[in-house]
Structure formats: C-alpha cells, structure tokens
Amino acid sequence: MKLKNNIIGSWFIIIAIFSLFLGLVFGILGGLQHLYPNLLKDTLSFQKIRPLHTYLSINWIFTAATGIIYYYLPEVSGRKIYSRSEEHTSELQSQFRI
C-alpha cells in the first residue's frame, strides 16, 4: 500500500544519506589534516572540520531513523499520518482556489 506520506519519509532518507556523505568527506579531510597539518590550514582548519564531521555523523542517524518511521509507519498501520497543520493547510487551499 503506497501512501502519500511515504514521500516525506523518502525525503528524510535522502537528506540522511546526503548528511552521511558530507560527514564522510569532512572525516576524510580531518584525517588528512591530522596527517598533514598544513593541508587547507587557512581555509578549513582541523578545529572547524571536527565539529562539522561530528554533527553530520550523528545527524544522519537521527534523520534516517525519523525517515524510516515516516516511511514504514503508514505502510504497517495502513493509515495516513495525521497532522493538524496539514489539515489546516488543505482547508486554506480549498478556500482560496479559483
């Protein structure tokens, strides 16, 4: 059963994969700077890259978990995920349609 809410979960998973890739890139750069201290020292120092790598590496886990919940919960339960803000948005859209 394919529901519309699976699109939201898919976007979360895409963002999580992008975050994982960026965390990997910053981790490789940080490792290279640890081996070669003068590499990109002026533009991206090790002190700037390390927090980015840590944040992105942790962020992808939570974003992927949220995306998996949004993706599989409607399929398992057979219902759409209820959202009051979505309900109000659809009401406003129906009122202002020409």
What does this structure look like?
- This protein is mainly alpha-helical and 98 residues long.
- Helix content is 76%, strand content 0%.
- Helix 1 packs antiparallel against helix 2.
- The longest helix has 32 residues, at 46-77.
- The radius of gyration is 20 Å and the shape is elongated.
- The model has no long low-confidence stretch (mean pLDDT 81).
Which features would summarize this protein structure in a list?
76% helix, 98 residues, mainly alpha, single chain
> What is the residue-averaged pLDDT?
81
Please outline the major beta sheet: none
Label the overall shape.
elongated
Number of strands: 0
Helix-strand pattern: HHH
Number of discrete helical segments: 3
Helix fraction by DSSP (H/I, runs of at least 4): over 70%
Class per helix and strand makeup: mainly alpha
What is the beta-strand fraction?
under 5%
- End-to-end span in angstroms? 32 Å
Radius of gyration: 20 Å
Poorly predicted runs are none
Topology:
Layout: H1 6-35, H2 46-77, H3 84-95
Task: Summarize the model shown.
The protein has 98 residues and is mostly helical. 76% of the residues lie in helices and 0% in strands.
